[in-house]
């Protein structure tokens, strides 16, 4: 019997593996985006310090750099592999798809990253130890390496949303996968956010310097306000462009949530614009406590919902619009010799082709029906739904209760809506009738 190349399901009760990824991702984004933003900011500060002979700016860069070492290079480096690790556990075939398309891009990114890590140490260590001109050149290379890591990783992350060009499916080429139509807007959107983050962190450092040097603290808080505002504008501008380059399924999901998201974004934009204007016009109001609080606000109210949205908008896919979120391959990719698995599943059923099904459960009997049903639901649905009644992640039982009253209704929904691929955000999960029966039987016992 032909088996599919599936992996075991990593199921996180109540929250779902996607939440775990989101959490790691949010922390990582704050840390990594700050580091690239700081790369550009340092180039700007070092340039100014050199041209205007401002020794005090080196002092600021040194403090900022020390903070960066912990915030970006310890926390960022722990959560970086952490996010790929959780992502691999949650979507092994999604990550496999990325590796099969981008292994050398990843390797190249690693080279830039190593330069970045060594660069930040060198940058801080060599302040006042080498001549300023050489130091300035060092900050330039640091900025280039930092932006390089973004430029390389962004093509990979954009591919998760979709390749952006149909050419990829026939050629299977890495450049067709990399240069999708949303790669560049996505890149500039993140560059803007990085610049904004560098200013937000910069205010934490500048406000903490008030006791020793009030004038410098004030000047730098103002500058960081301007930097943040500029970054915020760039982010907003490219966000609009980015939205125009998304696939239709993303817009369908977006339309479902647009009202709550839009309100969140508008409030956030107003709140942070206000904060940045205060920094520019009333820098003395920005205390260290306020600056740290705003960092948490941007993480919890800004990045976290943003990441959740990006994850939602990819539905039903997890990578390249050929790997479904539940790790089943949902379309042919001739360029990579990849075959759609949906027809085989419809014919044979999951029980026969999933290598992780215990032998005793491969055939449904009245005794094992509920156990099999649960196993099938975990495999087919749990990547996108909590299975517990009050789970945090699109709890399935709550959703089911809204559309079906009994086992027969549940089966009919799974078979006629999900099974035919009629839902814009759910994979086509076509299975033999007895597998639908088992799933519906188990769901009915839980949804009651
Ligand atoms: C690719 C992710 C994904 C998978 C896999 C998935 N769903 Fe969904 N499902 C969604 C999304 C997104 C929604 C919309 C949720 C909302 O409105 O909050 C949804 C909604 C639903 C609803 C509400 C009715 C509707 O059409 O909006 C039901 C019932 C449901 N899913 C059941 C299932 C079952 C049963 C499975 C497994 C056979 C499954 N889902 C697999 C993503 C998924």
Written account of the structure:
The protein has 448 residues and is mainly alpha-helical. The protein has two domains: 16-324; 341-447, Cytochrome c-like domain (Cytochrome Bc1 Complex, Chain D, domain 2). Helix content is 72%, strand content 1%. It has 16 helices and two strands. The protein has a two-stranded antiparallel sheet. The radius of gyration is 25 Å and the shape is elongated. The model has no long low-confidence stretch (mean pLDDT 94). The structure holds heme C.
Strand order of the largest sheet: 1-2
How would a crystallographer describe the biggest sheet? Answer: 2 strands, antiparallel
What molecules are bound to this protein? heme C
SSE pattern, N- to C-terminal: HHHHHHHHHHEEHHHHHH
Total domain units: 2
What Rg, in angstroms, do the CA atoms define? Answer: 25 Å
| Low-confidence segments | none
Q: State which percent range the strand residues make up.
A: under 5%
Overall 3D geometry? elongated
Compute the number of strand runs. 2
Give the rounded overall mean pLDDT: 94
The chain-level structural class is mainly alpha
